[in-house]
Design brief:
Oligomer: single chain
Distance between the termini: 58 Å
CATH class: Mainly Alpha
CATH superfamily: MetI-like
Number of strands: 0
Number of domains: 1
CATH architecture: Orthogonal Bundle
Length: 243
């Protein structure tokens, strides 16, 4: 038994004889997917927050429908819909416009990034909307009285405080997106953490050990992420008197 346990731990060594380097590459792939999706989601979130707070009814309702639909459906189902239906629709559109040949295949790596970005854009919409609403209106009115135009008010006053108020929610969604990146292994082989763990488990039949190792890797990523956001929140609140 001890020899078997030793050989299992030895299988996590670096190089051709172990899966250690594969797990490290899986971490890099997971972080790349998460960063790319999160950046896309943040951009969508800013637009969505603006749409939900603006006085144009069409945009307001579009933002409400978008966030309601995404928050109502399971993430895995949305990934299936966006990955399969979305890529097929995009490929057909490009072919129809004469920009691609028949039988075009959309890169699955890019497709999963877009899928996660669209999903988490809805969650970040409400996070950033809450951050915007937390900024005292008197400061915006004072900036208008001083003659600040809209973009300058956003850069100088609204955005820094919005981010400060939103950091806890942004951190939570980052943790969620790193975990949900594991769902993409269901639709595409992208060599992320989950794909590496599943491949190792299927090859060796030591499912408990390798899925346990996968869980430990995810916990390490989450612990580092929580530390980073805690430091970021502390830095953002420097000089702020708490009630």
């Amino acid at each position: 038994m001890a020899a078997d346990a030793h050989s299992l731990w030895a299988s996590l060594a670096w190089g051709d004889s172990g899966y250690g380097d594969e797990f490290v590459k899986g971490v890099a792939t997971t972080l790349f997917i998460s960063f790319s999706s999160y950046a896309m989601a943040a951009g969508i979130g800013l637009l969505g927050a603006w749409a939900k707070l603006c006085h144009i009814k069409a945009l307001n309702r579009t933002g409400e429908v978008y966030t309601t639909v995404v928050r109502s459906l399971p993430e895995l189902l949305l990934i299936f819909l966006i990955f399969y239906a979305g890529t097929r629709a995009l490929a057909n559109l490009l072919v129809m416009l004469g920009l691609a040949d028949q039988g075009l295949d959309i890169n699955p790596f890019a497709a999963v990034i877009v899928a996660l970005g669209l999903i988490y854009g809805a969650y970040l919409t409400d996070v950033l909307r809450g951050g915007i609403q937390a900024v005292p209106k008197g400061q915006i009115e004072a900036a208008k009285a001083f003659g600040m135009h809209g973009p300058k008010r956003f850069v100088r006053i609204l955005f820094p405080q919005m981010i400060r108020f939103s950091i806890p929610g942004l951190g939570n969604q980052w943790l969620n997106i790193t975990k949900d990146s594991a769902l993409v292994s269901v639709v595409a082989q992208v060599n992320d953490i989950m794909s590496v763990g599943r491949s190792a488990a299927n090859s060796t039949k030591h499912f408990v050990f390798y899925f346990g190792a996968t869980a430990i890797v995810f916990m390490i990523v989450s612990a580092v992420s929580m530390y980073f956001f805690a430091r970021l929140e502390k830095r953002a609140n420097r000089g702020i008197r708490r009630a």
